[in-house]
Amino acid sequence: MKTPVVRRRTGGARSQGHGEAELTAAVARIWHDLLGAEAADDDDFFELGGDSLLATWAVARIQDELGIDVTLDDLFQQTRLGELVAHLRLLPRRPRGGDPAAAADGAELTAAERAVWLAAELAPQPTAYLISVVVQVRGDLSADLLEAALGDVITRHEALRTAFPLLGTEPHRQVAAPAPGRVPRVTEADPPGPERLRELAAEDAERPIDLERAPLFRARLVVHRDHAVALLLTVHHAVFDARSLELLVRELGACCDARALGGAADLTPVPGPGAFGARQHAWLAGPEGRRAVAELAGSLTGLPALGPFPGTRPAGTAERVGAHRREPIDARLASAVRRLALRHGATLHMVGLTAFAVALADWTGTDDLAVGAAFSGRTTPEAQHAIGCFVNVLPIRIRTGGPEPFAEVLARVREATLFAARHQDVPFDSVRAWFRQEGVAPPEIRVAFGAQDVARPAYRGESFELTGREADTEQARLDLTCWLEAAGEDGLQAFWTYRPGLLTSSDVAGLHQRLVGALRDETGTRPADS
What we know:
Blueprint: H1 18-35, H2 52-66, H3 72-77, H4 81-88, H5 111-122, E1 130-139, H6 143-156, E2 162-163, E3 166-167, E4 170-171, E5 174-175, E6 185-187, H7 194-205, E7 217-224, E8 227-236, H8 242-260, H9 274-285, H10 287-298, E9 323-329, H11 331-343, H12 348-364, E10 368-375, E11 392-399, H13 406-422, H14 428-437, E12 447-452, E13 458-460, E14 464-470, E15 480-487, E16 491-498, H15 505-523
Helix pairs in contact: 1-2, 1-4, 6-8, 9-10, 10-14, 11-12, 12-13, 12-15
């Protein structure tokens, strides 16, 4: 996706009172921090590059920094800056967020950490929940400087020093003190290309990580003539998520620049997931949390189980636990899909999820589906700045209703997605526990969809640039997932993972064509080569 255009105020802006001008400036600053673009009254949050995730963060910051009781729905209803500011002036004030808790060692695991810990314990392969990260370096950056910067980031973020040893039969949090150490190096005679970096990352990802011993990551520096080429990380999902990669790249770059200029890197500790665990458990035990769990569970009552996929092969026939495919979506269709989202007050995720559900319903003959969606779980400003695992995968119930118009299904998907986003503080394990207490089999998440229409995390320094990405993996944590992401200047690509014992590569290729076909039919976009 292109960098958002920087917009300037024009003479057409309406006059403002002093209080409204200050509020507009404050909201515009938050938008700028999240979107990288200046905004005038008539600028639209989503046209500037916003999505559901960034909307969640914007709402959390407005609540905390401005003390206004705004909701996610408010931002989706008032997407232009001037409209939102006018609406904010009518809303009640809420107390500002208190100081984050500092103590973390020994604290109970958060719901997100516990969910990943349990899933990793039950996974058929011990490497199923490892994340393989490549931070590539362009320009002039010494390996010693990047190594020191990694030590700075580890000092700041307790998640990178956390382990979960068992106390009896239950895991508990154990945070080690910062201990700078030497990062192993791979010295290359020639500058390594992308394929070589993928090979090295794959080697690291083949070895398990013991959840009971910190740190829950391994690092290697790829070096050519004493200059850093890449930092390879294999990190357990229990202490890392997608937002963590953005923070890692940004802070590595900032620490490298600070050291290169002879200054001191920022070593101020950042409260990690452990600081929020006690609050989360108290909220879930209170009336507001119990009500939220019941609301989310109620939306899933009566959901039919997803049956076998058409052409399913007998269990145990797969040689691998997981496989993947990458499929391109040309720039012409991608642009039409983005315009479709804006016309319907939706996001790329909502449009893609609609097409995914339509394709899956058409293939399986099931028109009442639960599709997993990963929500950030970072609903407080403090959590937005902490490396760790906060992500919460929740089921979104989608009724495709057979051969209904795409726009009608999209409207239901939009409503269901916003409902789930409002409940993203509710752990899925709590929903499953609610069903068990009712004597009903809890729902399962077998398929999932995600989308992120932003460029890879990057940092541009004085003499170097860092770019971070997750390496492809053969692991399939669910039966089927589809992830839409930005590709090139304007295009998209779909990254599919699946279990070969249940699906074949041709099955997934067929599903992709169904998904693309649904998008082409709705946008009236023909293939680029037609």
